[in-house]
Amino acid sequence: MQIALALVAAYLLGSVPFAMIASKLFGLADPRSYGSGNPGATNVLRSGNKKAALFTLLGDALKGWAAVVVAQRLDFSETVIGLVALAVFLGHLYPIFLKFKGGKGVATAAGVIIALDPLLGLFVGATWLFIAFACRYSSLAAVVAAGMAPVVSVLMHGGRGQTVVVGILGMALIGKHWQNIQRLMAGQESKIGGKKKT
C-alpha cells in the first residue's frame, strides 16, 4: 500500500503544470496557445518573459528531484525508487490536470537524474548547455543529452537498475522530440528564444 501511494503521489506531483502556473503568475497567455503549444519552459520563453521560463524550468526540475529524494529518504528499494522516478516523469508527460497532454519532460528528467546520481546529472546538464549554446536548438540539445545519459550511466554503473531507468527516460525523451528531429532535418526547427517556424 505504501509503495502504491508513493507511485500515485509521484505521478500527481509530476502532473503539476508549472508552465501553466508561471503563465498565471506572470500574466501570460496559455502556453498551449502559441509557439509549439508545448507546456514547457522552452515554449514559455517564446513569450519573451525569461523569468516565467526560468520559473517553469526550475519547477519542472524540482518536482522530478523531490519525488526521487523523498523515495530515497523513505528508504525504498532501488526498484521502487526507479518506479517513483518513472511515475513523476510520466506525470509530466501525461498530466491528469491537463487531460494527459503535457510537456516533453526534459527538465523533469534532469531533476530525476540529478537526484539519482548528481555526477551523471551534472554531465547531462553540461551536455545540454553545450549543445544549446553552440547550436541554439533546445530540441537538439535535449536529444543529444538524452542519448548520452544512458551511455554514460552504463560506463559509470554498468547495467544496474538505475541505468535501466535512465535508459527509459532517454528513449522517452527522444520519442517525444521525434517531430522536432524531423524539423531539424528539414531546417525548420526554431531556435532558442525565437518563434516557431511554419
Radius of gyration: 16 Å
Helicity, in percent? over 70%
* Distance from first to last alpha carbon: 49 Å
Q: From the structure provided, what is the oligomeric state, counting identical versus distinct chains?
A: single chain
Shape: globular
Secondary structure category = mainly alpha
Mean pLDDT: 93
What is the number of helical segments per DSSP (H or I, 4+ residues)? 10
Give me the strand/helix succession: HHHHHHHHHH
Into which percentage range does the β-strand content fall? under 5%
Total individual domains: 1
Low-confidence stretches: none
Question: How would you portray this structure in words?
Answer:
This protein has one domain. Helix 1 runs parallel beside helix 5, helix 2 crosses helix 4 and helix 4 packs parallel to helix 6. The chain has 198 residues and is an all-alpha fold. The chain is globular, with a radius of gyration of 16 Å. The termini are far apart. The chain is 71% helix and 0% strand. The longest helix has 24 residues. The mean pLDDT is 93.
